[in-house]
Amino acid sequence: MYAKDLTIHKGTDNTVFFEFKNPDQKKVPILGKTITFTVFRENDGTTYIDIPVEIHDGPKGIGKVIITEGSLLNIEPAKYNYSVRVVDENGEDQQAYVDDNYGIRGVIDLKLGPRPLHQESVTLLFSPVSGSLVRSSAAQGNADDNHNQAVHTAQFFFSNFTGNIRVFGTLDNTVTDLDNANFFEITEIALVDQTDPLFVNFTGIFSGVRFEADETSGSVTKVLYRH
């Protein structure tokens, strides 16, 4: 088997085909053989993936592995090594070479996939300001990481709430003192006897966001924010 460096991606299933050949580049049949594909890190000896190779076309020496999205979930994007181990019909262990220099360790490059990685929400709690007005702490909008159509999501939680909730953003170039930044209103929503959580989506490039509520009755207990 002679192979170039492999590239796979997180966030999706990856199908990889292997073609087994001898030193004269003739196809080697693989019917009856047990083949294992292993991904590991050489510097610490950690094995991340160890799965059987499916016989895709035995007479033509073609094997296949499907590296699932789930198997890559806890593996960081980086370069790793891989090897292919072959056990023949007699139980004899063989090692497939990955290049014409008889190397048995190939390189596999794990990259970020077609979808963004899941980002945990930030929990923001509300504090009294004056009268019925409550305000959350401010959260960073990470404007440098967003694009022109950056989408933000806020999930509000209530206890029999009647009143108005408002979303604010700031363009101030500060990350150390967001609570004192100059905020402007993005949207306002009026609610009556709200008990179920409410999702509010808004777009824009903001260095920070925060939320307010006028509590006519009941309360806003918290908001989960993610961008």
Give a topology summary:
Blueprint (H helix, E strand, L loop, with lengths): L5 E4 L4 E6 L14 E8 L4 E7 L1 E4 L4 E6 L10 E10 L5 E3 L10 E6 L10 E3 L1 E5 L2 E4 L2 E2 L10 E20 L13 E11 L3 E6 L4 E19 L1
Parallel strand pairs: 1-9
Antiparallel strand pairs: 2-6, 3-4, 3-7, 5-6, 7-8, 7-9, 10-17, 11-12, 12-17, 13-17, 14-15, 14-16, 14-17
Question: Would you mind describing this structure in some detail?
Answer:
With 227 residues, the protein is mainly β. The chain contains no helices and 17 strands. It is elongated. It has strands at 6-9, 14-19, 34-41, 46-52, 54-57, 62-67, 78-87, 93-95, 106-111, 122-124, 126-130, 133-136, 139-140, 151-170, 184-194, 198-203, 208-226. The protein folds into 2 domains: 6-111, Immunoglobulin-like, CATH 2.60.40; 122-226, Jelly Rolls. Strands 10, 11, 12, 13, 14, 15, 16 and 17 form an 8-stranded antiparallel sheet that branches.
Name some characteristics of this structure:
Immunoglobulin-like; single chain; 17 strands; Jelly Rolls; 2 domains; elongated; mainly beta; six-stranded mixed beta sheet; 55% strand
SS-based class = mainly beta
* Count of discrete domains: 2
User: What is the CATH class name of the largest domain?
Assistant: Mainly Beta
Strand content: over 45%
Taken in chain order, the helices and strands follow as EEEEEEEEEEEEEEEEE
How many helix segments? 0
Give Rg in angstroms. 28 Å
Total DSSP E strands: 17
What kind of sheet is the major sheet?
8 strands, antiparallel
Summed over residues and divided by their number, the pLDDT gives a mean of 86
Q: Could you please say which CATH topology of the largest domain applies here?
A: Immunoglobulin-like
Q: Uncertain segments of ≥5 residues (pLDDT<50)?
A: none
Net shape: elongated
What is the CA-CA span between the terminal residues? 45 Å
Known CATH architecture of the largest domain: Sandwich
Helix content: under 10%
